[in-house]
């Protein structure tokens, strides 16, 4: 049996690993459009500071895949997929046959179509190539503006700041991390960011980016402007659906899957950022890992069921560790604060049931809080 996995993120590696654990006889192939072996995408921002080298980003060394008889094809894009003949075509004309297919194609960084977004000095951060381009520019940059006050945006701001660059964060909402923390948590993080020298531009909407050949400033819709020789967009992601469309799979926002991670076509699975389960697309590492395990195992012959795990995020910036899990806001959600020393801890309830938690403080408490939801 030939199991082919498209996508080299954590969902793809988890799928390949699980498939091999279920079947020693299956041919397992992992195809990645990137030129690098799968790496810790979560560490990309940290790499900006210059504290990590490229090798330390890898999930596993090349020998790890060889030992598990997982064939890895790098730097190849899937340009054709035929269900009838069960074949994929790569951009160089190579034909890859499959019996079971797992789509872990992930997502790409969304760049709003604002005027000037194609100027030199404007970036997104989603992969290692993006990161290298940003790090090269960071060596000479003086003022960087990060568009988006979510997890990735704040990480980028923090690590660029550590390089001595003046950094600003622009956020459409009136507070930071609007999806991950409540108002109180946002205020704690905003104060920490300001103390670290980061300028915050909250409740601001970008109108355009200006410059002659290179970015020189950004202009808001209210007419105000701030200088910049570097702009990084962190404004969300969109799933890669090209292969799904080639195969005429059922798609809503992402590829629709059932509890076995099976798509609308038999023997074709999906997992990670590209997959939509019960209307949800969390787009976070732990979910991608778990979905990948289920998809890979079932592609190899198992019948495992995916049990959704609560969305969770860990952020370490500005001298703070922020951990959120589950639901921390919404209609009918109440909260109870139980600080421990300098640690801010809040629990959230709905209909008398614990549905979420927020911790700002000691990283050692993260596992204690996480256990409440296991």
TrEMBL record:
The keyword Flavoprotein applies. InterPro entries: FAD-bd_OxRdtase, FAD/NAD-bd_sf, FAD/NAD-binding_dom, FAD/NAD-linked_Rdtase_dimer_sf, Rubredoxin_C. Coiled coil: none annotated. Pfam families: Pyr_redox_2 (PF07992), Rubredoxin_C (PF18267). The keyword Ribosomal protein does not apply. Gene3D superfamilies: 3.30.390.30, FAD/NAD(P)-binding domain. Residues 1-292 form the FAD/NAD(P)-binding domain. One of its GO terms (molecular function) is oxidoreductase activity. Keywords: FAD, Flavoprotein. Residues 311-372 form the NADH-rubredoxin oxidoreductase C-terminal domain. Its cofactor is FAD. This is Nitrate reductase. It comes from Carboxydothermus pertinax.
